[in-house]
Amino acid sequence: MRKDRISKLKEFLDLDPNDSFSRxxxxxxxxxLDDSVQAAxxxxxxxRRDPDYVPAYQQLGYVYQRISRREDAVAVFKRGIAIATxxxxxxxxxxxREALDEILDAG
Length: 107
Known about the structure:
Elements: H1 2-15, H2 20-32, H3 36-49, H4 54-66, H5 70-86, H6 90-106
Helix pairs in contact: 1-2, 2-3, 3-4, 4-5, 4-6, 5-6
């Protein structure tokens, strides 16, 4: 089932490489398969193409945490908080702030 979703999302990206939602959803599918390297690569590409896509910052920060890239997680959460705040998305900003605080407190 998951492989079917991955295939379909790849088809969507073939049709429109700038489809942020499909790239994001594909990254989440890989994260669910514990393929953090592929998930990170997709989220990094998404943010290069669409730097205002707030959910990608949050998920990329979580992926970086899972693969012990602490400094990268801190940087991406800080950037995500700034973008979310600019977009008045206090919910996402708050969740990223909590994740950032956990990293810094554990530091």
